[in-house]
Fold Zinc-binding metallopeptidase.
Amino acid sequence: MKIIRTFIIAALLGVGFTSCSEDDLNPTSIFDSTTEPVRNEFDQWIWKNYTEPYNIELKYRFDDKESDMDYNVIPADYNKSIALAKLVKYLWMEVYEKLAGKEFLCTYCPKIFHFVGSPEYEKSGGSMVLGTAEGGLKITLFNVNALNVSSLDPEILNEWYFKTMHHEFSHILHQTKNYSTDFNDITAGKYYGAGWVNINDATARRDGFVTAYASSAVDEDFVETIANYIVKSDAEWQQILNEAVSVDEAGNPDYSGRDAILRKLEMVTQYLADSWGLDIQALHEEVQERETHIDELDLVTLN
Ligand SMILES: [Zn+2]
């Protein structure tokens, strides 16, 4: 216990300590680090790599309080949590830090990342949940135990974790600074609401949405456009645009779906630049570049 307390104090007083805000030193911090029972090696790594620099807590232990009791979920595996924590730092946090600065990340990033081992299924047999964000405070990532460290596939990583993170983070941004209502007009009257579950991506794209989920509501559309553009490779994005073109029985192409998606991309690009000084093209390129190096990462050693 003495060692743990010493570590915490050393971290707080450490040379080069650049805190996100004065809140870090508030004794009533939500992290309540002094009552943490035992900090294992991974806990110490989290402190050094998430909490101390970014004011983010990473919860990987099972905690009923953090899970929605309407769902059945299982805990995240320890080693897979380590691997994902390192991937999140490299493919997500460091990207925003590099392009928007540490202060931006510290201010707007959710304060808690919560890892859950299984996907979350509604007990009623409804849809599967990829991720959730609650009031900008917490992002939950599911299916952590499906992470295959020996065969990392960017497409699967994006589908399960990183698209979700960009999606949820974009909600925080637009909830902080509204986007132009002109966005609502691009595909007005075409949203499916809860009926989106019966629509496949290809159909949604012909209607002018990047994914089926984007067709559920305007806010979802807005953040799905951002998240997909950032994580999709150029070839994958082109494929989305190709699928958005429909051809009638006489062989005449209809480009309205593709044009709507491109107009939405234009609007989210403008929004991120004007409201946040964020270059979505640079975000996209940085993520694509980093994805080519994930096999070189050490996802095991805590240092
Ligand atoms: Zn959403």
